[in-house]
Structures are given as structure tokens and as C-alpha cells.
Amino acid sequence: MRLLKLATCNLNQWAMDFNCNLKHIKESITEAKQAGAVIRLGPELEVTGYGCEDHFLELDTVTHSWECLKEILVGDWTDGILCSIGMPVLKGSERYNCQILCMNRKILMIRPKMWLANDGNYRELRWFTAWKHRDQLHDFVLPPDISEAISQKSVPFGYGFIQFQDTAVAAEVCEELFTPVRPHDELALNGVEVFMNASGSHHQLRKLDIRLEAFMGATTRGGVYMYSNHQGCDGGRLYYDGCSAIVVNGEVIAQGSQFSLKDVELVVAQVDLDAVASLRGFTSSFQEQASCKTSVPSVAAPYSLCQPFNLKATLSSPMKINYHCPEEEIAFGPGCWLWDYLRRSGASGYLLPLSGGADSSSVAAIVGCMCQLVVKEIANGDEQVKADAMRIGHYTDGQFPTDSKELAKRIFYTVYMGTENSSDATRTRAKVLADEIGSWHLNVSIDGVVSAFLSLFQTLTGKRPCYKVDGGSNIENLGLQNIQARIRMVLAFMLASLLPWVHNKPGFYLVLGSSNVDEGLRGYLTKYDCSSADINPIGSISKMDLRSFLKWAAKHLGYSSLAEIEAAPPTAELEPIRSNYSQLDEVDMGMTYEELSVYGRLRKIYRLGPVSMFKACFLFHFLYQEITPFRYNTLTTEVSVVMLQNLCFRWGSTLTPSEVAEKVKHFFKYYSINRHKMTVLTPSYHAESYSPEDNRFDLRQFLYNVRWPYQFRKIDKLVEEVNGDKVAFEEGSQEGKSGGMGVVAAGAGDPKAGL
């Protein structure tokens, strides 16, 4: 037997906070050594934090990284343990994203990343160069102060592996695992048994299985795969969701948490490398390909890592993989992100305009979940969480949070800002939910402020606008709604800055936004209303997922009033309520939230323009056959396909091609009219693959020809070709039957309804 004890970790790093990051790296190495590990793997760019972005272009960032590495190397941190540490390195005039492989106070090898992540949220090619020399290792001259400190002038630099006396180890950095030609396949044929993947992978709903399947697939023909990831908010919209793991021969034997408030979480396992050699020797095709492999450069290390057979040694066994359901992901991911943001921002708490509707209630429940997580972690003995909570909550005399509702009372304000258009039902729901969570709640009427604005307008112009139900025009109706919405934003920020002063508390509160991804996509929000805030934990989560979350949270978080909130029809309550009229979101938008989710996925994930979207919406089988073989995220695709199937079959049994065309045109018209709102969208937790957030994820113009003349003309021509006035499926036919999804508001099937 060749016994090898390994340690990987989740680290909660903070971009550009070198003190914080170095502290966590040292803690993880110390814990790994205490556990008896001889290999310690940390996440990608752990010295700087992954999210430094354009700070990577600064020479100081590279210099400080070497200074931190020097501190590790001159101490006893690497004595007897191979440490893989991620940081940027300048070689000549090129900047590389590197793993520094260190042991016994020496640098054994520097491995630059060969394939850079450059899509979605990632822009690595903006900051780094991909290493392109695969055939040989280069000699890298170390910076003078490093060279002097460790008595080493140069180090091998490039693609290769380290050959120890009893095994071979190599790095594979994040994105390289997901490329068509993956380094670990070639390295395995060259005898590498242990692969170390340092990653900076963010959370996205229903994404984790793709990652874990890749680890397992990398070792099904024999091998040990170590994976390390960041965990937490390191300064931006992303939450890195940990889940560090160790896989042997295709089976997970150790897995870290996906969501946690811990700064350092170690994952340790003991493996027998003879099991790897045995499986490879058993696989004939592996033997044949290894016999004619392309040689990969290597570095010889005069050390042994393995231990011989030991009666007291216990091998790590295959375990059941821990997956969270999407509702749990919505609770724990944004909850942990909010805690990181709060403790690092210097704020004393959060303020939320709580309308009693589904979106703001979802945000309130997530903050309540955050408070529950904090209290639970303190009870588990986490001193850092305890210290942060005592500081933020202004606890004195050694007191600390023991009850989530009591903590919420200290750090969470909720405000119901009602008008004459608000209902008693939403006012009551907001109050009940606030009581369940424990927030400090205000019930405010803003009618006086609205009236003052209207009086000022009347003084200036001699006119006073009226609502549509009272005989006003669409322009008047929209203007009156926007006044209410924007006053709420101003009042929210005023309360967030002054309420702590009123209550003799130091600091300030951060305002939370509560618009969802579908409303952002459609532009169904007022520019600079309560969608404008400091941060938004649900800005990249769909309405349908939020409704499922509310039902889950009513039961599992203990906020039972959420069940009633979920069941209520979504309404902005910005227009007067009449016996024959009640404002509904889906009627205002001219489309259901279910339809919006499908439009969003087709537009972003499948990259369909107006013409292709019309074809997809009407000809479902074409879409299914074309995209399914190439799907990247299996779970997300299956959800999208089922949603699209239900939607199209429902449309096909009731709508003509021309009516389907009008729906698609209606979406693109209002998407393009409102695209400018995305330029000021509140920074939002990234959770959904069709987010319209234009800062980095969805890079498109914000000034469109909203008539789309060329594209819409093509759609009209297609409608003519397929007999556009005839319903596609006979009523009651098998093709037209659908289980249905979501709640369709009255009139939402008509694109012109409510407009």
C-alpha cells in the first residue's frame, strides 16, 4: 500500500485584502499539517482573491503576492508538506495566473494556467495571458528578495508535473477541467496519480452536479482528483460556493460544504495510490494509450510523500454526495453572501422596503435565514462569526447573539411605505412577516409626500395628472405610479442613513433591493425606485424559483406567513383599487412570469434573436433536437426544456402562429425599450444563467431600434408561410395537453392586455 493523506480547502478570501488572505492560507496549512496531510491545495489566486479584476493590471498586486509568498516560505509552513498556492506572476512582459508548488521552504515549480475562463462572468484574458508552451519547462528567475530569502535563484516554469520518489503530482487549474482537450488525460498517461485543481467557481442555481461529475469523470480510469474553491463574497456580485472535494477512481470520498460562514474549511482524506495503479493496470485501453503517449515535461523532487501499510490507518470511503435543492440554494447562497457583505462593508445592518409582496418578502426571508445561520455558527463555536456579530450588533459586556429574532431586531429594519393605493392585506402581511423574522418594523404612509410633489407640479404647470381608472391618459397613469415608486427609494435611503442615529447606534444601514431577474429582463421596474438599492440578493433569481422558495421557507425557516404571500397574485399596488379593477403585474407586462423565464433562457442561454425565438416557441421539437445534444448544464437545460414544452403546447392548442409571433415581438419590444434600465441595475447576487445584468454578464447595447423592422418582417413572412391564422394543435388533442406551470394572470395571454 502507498498511503497518502491529502487536504484541500474552502477559503473565504477578500479581493486585495492581503492580510486577511494570508491569514486564511496559513490557517489552512496549519490545519492540514495537524491532520497529517502531506499535500495541501488552496483555491485559484488565493493570495490576491479571485475578484481583483483590473487590480491584476497593477504591478503592486503582483509585488504584494510575492511578499505574502515570501512570508510563507521563510517560516515553517511548508516543512514536510507540498503546498499549491495561487497568485499572479509576471514573466517578462506577460502576466500569468499561476499555481506555485512549494515544499520544504523551496519553490519546486510554477504552473501557469493554459486555458483561461473568458465567458459569462469571467474576463481572465483581460488580465492574464494563457501559457502556450506545452513541450518544455522554462527557467524562471525569481525576484531578488525572494531569491535571497530562500536561497534559490530560479525555478521551472510551465506545463508539467512533479515526479516524487513514490508518486507523481500535477496541477490542473479551474477552467482546464472543462475544456475539450483536458490536461489530466495526458498527464495520467504520463504516470501522474494526483491532480490538484485550484478553482474560483461561483454559485449558480442547479450547477453543482456539473462540477462534481467532471471530477468523477476525470478519474474513472484511475486517479486522485483534489478540488479547492473559494467560498464567500470576495467583493463583488459572485458568491463562490466552495464544495471542495477529493475523488478517487470516480468516487467522491470527501466533500466540503457548499454554503458556509466559515473563513477556513479543511477537507481531508487518506487514499491508497495502489488502488489507482491497480485500476489503470486493469484497463487495457489505458495501457495501450500510455505506451504511445506524448511525453510531458517533469520536475524531479527528492522526497517521498506516501506512507507504507499501517494497521492503524483508515482509508476514506466513498460517500453520498450532498446536493442542495434549489430552494435551499436560494436561502443559503444569498444568505451567506449578505453576511460577508455586511461584515466587510462596515455597515451596522440592512434596511428593506417591505411591501408584503413575493419579492420583498423573499429578501426578508433570506435576511432572516442569514440571522439563523449566524446564530447556529456561533453555537457551533465559530469565534470569527461571533466576533463579527458582536461588532455589527453592538453587543456589550460579553453578550452575543443566541436568538435569530433578537439579532434581526438589532441589524434589520423593514419599512412598509403605503399609499392610498395600498391594501390592508399587504400591510398586514408585511407586519406579520416582520414579526416572524424579528425585524424592527415601520408602517409609513407616503401620501403626504406624493401630494406635495403633485401640488408642486400643479403650481409649475397648472395641470394635475389623473389615474387611468379616473379618466387619465397612459402618460398620466405611468407618471403617477413612478412618483410613488421613486419617493419610496428616497425615503429608504434617508431612513437607512438616519435611523441608526435616531436609535443612538453608530454606523449606517445598507438598503436592500428586491426586483427579480424576470422584471429586470422585461424592464418591469421604475428607474430609481426601490429596485435601486445598495445590493440586491434576488436580482438574478426568477419569479418562479422565488415562489417555490417562499413555500419552502414557510415550512423550513419557520416563517409561515410566506405561504399566504406566495399564494397572492403579484401586484405593484401603484394604481387605485376599484370594484372592477385591481392592478396585476402579469397583466401590466402583457406576459406571465413563466413566459418571461422561457424568453430569458432562449435569449441568453440559447442565444436566440427574435426570428429564432419565434421558431423555437412555435416549433418545440426543433429546439429540443437541436440544442439538447450540446447542452452544457444538464439540470438547467432540462428545466428549460420542460418549461418551454409546457408553454408551447399550451400556446399551440389556443393560439395561432400570428398570435405567437405577437407575443415574441411584444417581449423584444419592451425588452429593448427598457434595456437602458440595466445600466443602473443594483448590484445583484448572481444566481441565474439568463441574468440581463449588463455590467459584465450580459454585454449588449442599451439603445435599440425598438421596432426591430428587419427581424419582425422576417417573422411576419414566416407566419404567412405556415398559415398564421390557424391554431397549430386541435383543442383537446394529445399534443395540446399540458400539465402547465405557474399561475397565469387574467388577460396575460393577450400581449396588449393592460397596456
What do these coordinates show?
The protein is of the alpha/beta class. It is built from 25 helices and 20 strands. The strands form 3 sheets. Strands 1, 2, 3, 4, 5, 8, 9, 10, 11, 12, 13, 14, 15 and 16 form a 14-stranded mixed sheet that branches. It has a 4-stranded parallel sheet with strand order 19-18-17-20, with helices on both faces. A hairpin with a 7-residue loop joins strand 11 and strand 12. Helix 20 (593-604) crosses helix 23 (634-654). The model is unreliable at 621-639 and 731-755 (pLDDT under 50).
Q: So how many helices?
A: 25
What is the CA–CA distance across the termini? 74 Å
Rg value: 29 Å
> How large a portion of the residues is in β-strands, by DSSP E?
5-15%
Which segments are poorly predicted (pLDDT under 50) over 5 or more consecutive residues?
621-639, 731-755
Shape: globular
Whole-number average pLDDT? 90
Task: Tell me the structural class.
Answer: alpha/beta
The number of E-state strands comes to 20
Helix content: 40-55%
* Sheet with most strands: 14 strands, mixed
Describe the secondary structure blueprint for this structure:
Layout lengths: L2 E9 L6 H17 L4 E3 L17 H16 L7 E10 L2 E10 L2 E7 L11 H4 L10 E4 L2 H7 L3 E4 L3 E3 L4 E4 L11 H7 L4 E6 L8 H11 L5 E9 L7 E2 L3 E4 L2 E5 L8 E9 H10 L1 H7 L7 E3 L25 H20 L3 E5 L4 H22 L3 H11 L10 H8 E7 L5 H14 L2 E6 L1 H15 L12 H29 L6 E3 L5 H6 L20 H14 L5 H6 L17 H5 L3 H12 L5 H9 L1 H8 L6 H21 L2 H17 L35 H13 L34
Parallel strand pairs: 1-2, 1-11, 2-3, 8-16, 9-10, 10-11, 17-18, 17-20, 18-19
Antiparallel strand pairs: 1-15, 3-4, 4-5, 6-7, 8-9, 11-12, 11-13, 13-14
Helix pairs in contact: 2-4, 9-10, 9-17, 10-11, 10-12, 10-13, 10-17, 20-23, 21-22, 21-24, 24-25
